[in-house]
Amino acid sequence: MNQKLKQPKYWFLCIFLASNLWLNAQDKAISLDYSNIKLNQVLDSLQEISGYHFFYNKNWFSERKNYSFKNTSLVNIMDSLVEGTIFNYYILDKEKRIFILKNDLIYDELPKSFYPTQKTEDSVLNNRIATIVTPLFYEPSYGGNENKPRPITVGKSLASDARAIYQVNGKALYQTTNEPIANLVIQNKTTANTLVSKDSGDFTLNMQYGLNELVFSAMGVKTTYQDVIVYNTGGFTVFLEESLEILDEVIVEADAKSNILDSNTGKEEFSTEETKEIPLVLGERNVLQIAKALPGITSAGEGSGGINVRGGKTDQNLILLDHTVIYNPSHFFGIFQALNPFITDKVAVYKADAPLKFGGRLSSVIDIKTKKNIPKEIGVEGSLGPVTANLALEIPIKKDTTALLIGGRGAYADYILANLDDENLKNSKASFYDGIIKLNHRFTDDSDLNITAYNSGDRFSVTKDSLFKYQNTAGSIVWNHKLNEKTIGQFNINHSRYNFDIGFNDEGNRNFDLAYGINETFLGYDLQKDLSKKLKVNYGLATKYYQVNPGRISPGDVNSDIQELQIQNEKALESGLYVGSELSVSDKLQVNLGARLTNFTALGERYQRVYEENQPKNEGTVVDTLNYSNLESIKSYFGPEARFSVRYLINPSFSLKGSLNNSYQYVHTLSSNTTVSPIDTWKLSDLHIKPQKSIQAVIGLYKNLKEDEFEISLETYYKWMDNVLDFKTGAELFLNQNVETEVLQGKGKAYGVEFMLKKNRGDLNGWLSYTYSRSLYSFSSEFDEETINNGDFFPSNFDKPHDVSLIANYRLTRRFSFSMNFSYQTGRPVTFPVGTYRFNNADFVVFSERNKFRIPDYYRLDLGFNVEGNHKKKKLAHSFITFQVYNVLGRNNPYSVFFVTEDGEVKALQSSIFGIPIPSITYNFKF
């Protein structure tokens, strides 16, 4: 009995000692210290030190890191090496082998739920975990001819984190350009869930543990079926091919339902590709001219720089290029845009309810974005036209990571001026250029940096003794990054400058040089957070520093009698703090609510006059002069802004929207011209000039027909404005030390109805827009010199009640197409002389009330014929040729009406820009 009892104890002791030997081998203290090496190199060293054999695929490891361990056990080292990675490991102690696994686990026992006879309540595992710990078996069926891509694996299996559903983040990019794919439909056939990717290409899916079959589809993207094996939370990037067969329709189909689902009112979006077939003057692509064909947007006249949006002045538009303000986005008297069309990607126009991060203007935000491509190879695109040559380069610097975009344009336009009707322009000379460089760098899928530098310049001579020059300079640094799974941040710093110079030189002694400049530096941080599927918040802050040189004149040479004069500089600080939310109350109802708090402070060093209260501001009412030191606060204005919009989905293709918002504007243009002039100056609010204010209410109906082939929208709006600027008759605005004595501030109102019908696809596509609108102003005071039209409301210079635009493209074949652009507008208001009188043997003209009459109505028809090169995929260059005739009907549309006295008689004369048909041919190429 004793021997039988001792023998089991002996064998138990042997087993215990053997186990200790294996444990001691794993617990052996190991020290390692490596810098900048791959993980497989660490595993090779561990193999030599520990005596264990490691099994892995060395192609899995590409990242280099630093590794340091001191007197650490093998198990603890392995735990540390795989922590935060997608790798697991499994140890076979007896064979002294260690297996490195990607995503998966090795299971050395069956789950208790494997036995169907076992009762659930007897299991220590609940039903959720019992399902998950079952090993995954996936047998790929990818032969050499299979089109289905290989499966994607996400996360790593952890027994301590066993769930039925995991949240997976994805990003969709174009395979050839690495550009994000917006509005991509992602369908999970396994769970029957569907969602749409964001503008950044990002999306978030709730996916089940194991195999999920996804389907990616969008217009212009090849439909792709992709298996995704989910082990845990994580992320992946999918690269999709463009669908060449439907490229012609991608432009209009990319956001097929955004007009219905988006809660913004008054928002219009288009890409530069949409402009390539639309006939415009001299064959130039021009996104700002295309914007004028949208409802609610017009301009004072043909060839005028600047646009008027919903009854607002041209200075009430915030025009941004990669987040940076462009003060004068036009070349050549407003005929051409100062933006390279081959670098420009998309344009968003907000006529109401602009995003919270934008502020400082009453009427609109025009957000122009350049391309963010990171191409795989060098790309060249450009055009040769009758006036300009354009060239754009896309240069990859580091594969899938860094790229450089370079765009340049120059003009050879003098001969065009010689053929214009205006006698003052026939003997003129003009040239212009613009250039842009952009660096795109992607740190990770969740972080990228975009640096843009832009410069444009115009140089023209209207008369032989004068030379005008004006220039835009801008630069921005934008860092987009994801802070966590729910929060995206954008840091933005930029600088913008606009300046002009006028040189006058004749044979007399009045030669002079005149200069003006405005600078602004902006710093902002914007955050977007998804609190839940139904609630998103947006918040941030921004500040802007202004420096203005209001004007300087100096003698042109030593013989000049001109006295040097420098108007005192202006400085100011404008800041904004905002927060907003987007709440999906239900599948049909979505509400946006936000607030923006703005503060503007005019700063010294400068002086400000003090005038008698309740008296007009003139030289006779000055009672004091206040002097302010450098950066001392002169006057502060606080402006609370509210943004509210709502969208109700009547059915999947029909929605009702409404919005109400107010805005403040602290900068103003000083100009007595009807349209934008290169020598317009900007003035900051101060002790006497108050900020402009507006409130706008909008309601609209939006309907899609025939599976989104047609879009119909109808919006009506009413806008109240206060402190809008105008000027006294005969005002001297430039080089005026006390310009407040020439400025009037009053009230304005604008209202209208906008209709748009758009056909998105088919051989015939384009849009028809009609706008009925009124824009009225009132300047009332107890003093006659500060009153216009007895204080009654009168039409603004850009009040045009009826505006019709029709843009159509008809495709004969895949290579040949016709295009048409028709525009009609009510003639703008003017002030006419209505009589004369004689006083002291001199004749004087009596004028009507301000803007009581109108010039003749404007209409124009442009036609184009477009020829694309063959569509062979492999060839040196792809070409596109446009033959266009601007103003086919030869309509002599009046640009302005002015009056002269000849032989004692007052005569009306009309000035036109293009009074004859203007043919052009443009060759576009892409390598």
TrEMBL record:
Q: Where's the TonB-dependent receptor plug domain?
A: 283-360
A Pfam family of this chain: Plug
Q: Record's GO cellular component, any one?
A: cell outer membrane
Q: Where in the cell is it found?
A: Cell outer membrane
Q: What top-level branch of life does the organism fall under?
A: Bacteria
Which coarse location class describes where this protein primarily resides? membrane
- Keywords attached to this entry: Cell outer membrane, Membrane, Receptor, Signal
Leader sequence range is 1-25
This one is known as TonB-dependent receptor
